[in-house]
Amino acid sequence: MTPQPLPSALPLTDRTRHRRLREQGSLARADLDAILDAGFLCHLGVVIDGRPFVVPTVYGRDERWLYVHGSVASRSLAGSTPVCVTATHVDGLVLARSVFEHGVNYRSAVIHGEARTVTDPDEKLEGLRRLTEHATPGQWTYARHPSRKELAATTLLAVSLEEASVKIRTGGPDDGDGPDAELGLWAGTLPLTQVWGAPVPDPLLPPDIPVPAHVARREGTGQG
Amino acid sequence: MTPQPLPSALPLTDRTRHRRLREQGSLARADLDAILDAGFLCHLGVVIDGRPFVVPTVYGRDERWLYVHGSVASRSLAGSTPVCVTATHVDGLVLARSVFEHGVNYRSAVIHGEARTVTDPDEKLEGLRRLTEHATPGQWTYARHPSRKELAATTLLAVSLEEASVKIRTGGPDDGDGPDAELGLWAGTLPLTQVWGAPVPDPLLPPDIPVPAHVARREGTGQG
């Protein structure tokens, strides 16, 4: 199963065209990939009875598809359903001289597509593998794989990565060369990072089972 | 402007009733408040032309209303619009013996309501104050307040906190007392925390302006 690669530039569509802060938009697929690979939790939006529902869920991806654990939204996802999947990383606060210029440094990917319920057993297993490895590299080969029954009880959705909107904001505030610079106020950014902690063993775990290397090595490293 | 307090229990509605993993649901308003107060970024979902749009944005709150910076969704938010606002904190990965039992420790609040565009200047200023203080306590009294022109150029939305769905997952994996415990695999959680870094001054800042105490004291503390 070698997915067809997508063009390296994201298409500009009516949904992905940035209406404001254009300078923050990126049409590079490499930026989309990097944002998706930096995290494992997204917010999945669906429409139910004309109203929006937004639920957090985990994801994985290949070159062509975003795979989303779909149980959280299962009541709404029969067949092909319009979805919006957004992955956001917060890198810090932008503290300006004026309240008006305050902001957030962030990276976000907003993916528009139709949710396809994955039914093919091979694709489902491969999608789950990608999802598992995406959150914890090395875990798929370590843990017990899904049984046929478990696989049937799992809802996996695929969303095409074709249409996406990427926004990135970096750097300091924008009011350093305006009249507000005369106010004598401090301005800058306050970075925010996600860090993996020490593994916490299940209380039921026998003491002689060591933390596997692929889990242990994450402690103290950044995520996002 | 003293908002009317809401009941301490969240109402069970067709939208907030948990369809799965009921044990993770909470109807305590205190849990909702705690989740909202632990962060400053939410995902705002709206429906445009029948399709979902999910965008990240900052928020603040009082006892009654969630205030959301609305410019990101301004093209869609004329008048009273159904919205779903979701705030999620990821506390770690749940690594089980089987792939099927893997999960995420998290806290999420899903708020359902209609977005009301705040037009009253007093409420708008107070909403922006709450939003600013929510992200950076102490910043509203430190930074320059919005001018009349800036206030007019800011879109602030209010969403009632009346109807919300709260979910919290904590603890280790659930397969420690089943047959998979015999596999001899490590299982537990890998905590993930958000930490504030050292303030980065704007390059245009004169060197004699100190980092204010309310910003400096966050360095090294957790967020979320």
Automatic annotation (TrEMBL), chains A, B:
Coiled coil region boundaries: none
| Pfam name, any one | Pyridox_ox_2
The cross-references to InterPro entries, in alphabetical order and at most eight, read: Pyridox_Oxase-rel (IPR024747), Split_barrel_FMN-bd (IPR012349)
* Top-level taxonomic group: Bacteria
Q: What is this protein called?
A: Flavin-nucleotide-binding protein
